[in-house]
Specification:
Layout (H helix, E strand, L loop, with lengths): L2 H11 L4 H10 L1 H4 L2 H6 L3 H10 L9 H16 L7 H4 L14 H12 L4 H7 L4 H10 L3 H15 L5 H11 L3 H13 L1
Helix pairs in contact: 1-6, 8-11, 8-13, 9-12, 12-13
């Protein structure tokens, strides 16, 4: 994983007090530049989604993630009872190459879970996951990569082998993630 991915997953998975979320929204209100978007932003995931949508947060530009990481470290130091083992959860060094999992299906799972974002629900619907199951996945798993893992695991067991990859491609297209569908197709074709 890149430094961006490490920071993104750590910041998104962390527990953020409501007061800190309010401070973050205030600090970055000029970047977001929309009172409606700020009002709709209830948690860190919403905040990161808005920044990504406005292209203020991406692989090349992740200064805000660095700021959030430092803020989170400061919050953890001022509340030691909430402090996780911060230094072991995220490496201060940038990996040169991402870890590539073994197996085609695991590679697809990794790529989809890293890039799908809020469209994961539409993707799950495209694979035939019911609304109640989607709600249960949201309640059970805090981060999207765990939800995607469960969705793809279920899909792998229920889908006939000859339609396994084409149905993933089609579900990504239905979720309006044609870019990600093309990435998946490239992985499948080169394997």
């Amino acid at each position: 994983m890149t430094r961006y991915q490490d920071l993104y997953h750590y910041v998104r998975a962390a527990s953020w007090p409501d007061a800190v979320i309010s401070d973050i929204k205030f600090k970055y209100k000029d970047i977001i530049a929309s009172n409606r978007q700020l009002a709709a932003c209830k948690n860190i995931t919403d905040f990161l989604y808005i920044l990504e949508k406005r292209d203020e947060l991406n692989e090349e530009n992740y200064v805000i993630l660095e700021d959030l990481y430092i803020l989170l470290r400061d919050v953890n130091e001022s509340h030691p009872q909430q402090k996780g083992n911060l230094e072991t959860r995220i490496s201060p060094e940038v990996r040169v190459l991402p870890v590539v999992p073994n197996g085609l299906y695991k590679r697809l799972e990794q790529v989809i879970s890293l890039k799908i974002g809020h469209k994961w629900k539409d993707f799950a619907r495209g694979l035939g996951i019911l609304e109640g199951q989607i709600d249960e996945l949201e309640d059970r798993h805090k981060n999207i990569s765990d939800r995607i893992r469960d969705v793809l695991e279920f899909h792998e067991h229920c889908c006939p082998k000859q339609f396994l990859y084409s149905s993933i491609y089609n579900a990504l297209c239905l979720a309006r993630r044609k870019d990600l569908a093309l990435d998946v197709q490239l992985i499948i074709d080169t394997n």
